[in-house]
């Protein structure tokens, strides 16, 4: 009969759709990781190139994001 889809065609269609879904998921995860890496690197570069990051006050535990805590203020390396 015309217009009927066999069980084999339905299985093949399901497999193809599953492969496409897995590929899309993988690509979105890679895109997220890449975007986070670029954002982190950009943040690091901007932090090292701005004076504000080099002269911020040290935190209560003596930690600095931008470098070392010296005399109550962070200093860049």
How would you sum up this structure, described in words?
The chain has 77 residues and is mainly alpha-helical. The protein has one domain (7-76). It has helices spanning 7-49, 51-54; strands at residues 67-70, 73-76. It has a two-stranded antiparallel sheet with strand order 1-2. β1 (67-70) and β2 form a beta hairpin. It is rod-shaped and about 85 Å long.
Q: Could you write a compact summary of the structure shown?
A:
By secondary structure, the protein is mostly helical. 61% of the residues lie in helices and 10% in strands.
Largest sheet: 2 strands, antiparallel
Span between termini = 78 Å
Indicate how many domains the architecture comprises: 1
Q: What fraction strand? A: 5-15%
- Gross morphology is rod-shaped
N to C succession of SSEs: HHEE
As a percent range, the share of helical residues equals 55-70%
Average pLDDT taken over every residue: 78
Low-confidence stretches: none
Structural class comes to mainly alpha
Adjacency order of strands in the biggest sheet: 1-2
Rg from C-alpha positions?
Answer: 27 Å
């Amino acid at each position: 009969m015309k217009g009927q889809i066999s069980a084999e065609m339905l299985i093949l269609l399901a497999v193809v759709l599953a492969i496409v879904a897995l590929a899309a998921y993988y690509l979105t995860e890679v895109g997220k990781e890449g975007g986070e890496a670029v954002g982190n690197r950009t943040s690091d570069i901007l932090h090292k190139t701005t004076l504000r990051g080099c002269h911020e006050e040290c935190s209560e535990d003596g930690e600095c994001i931008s470098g070392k805590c010296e005399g109550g203020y962070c200093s860049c390396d």
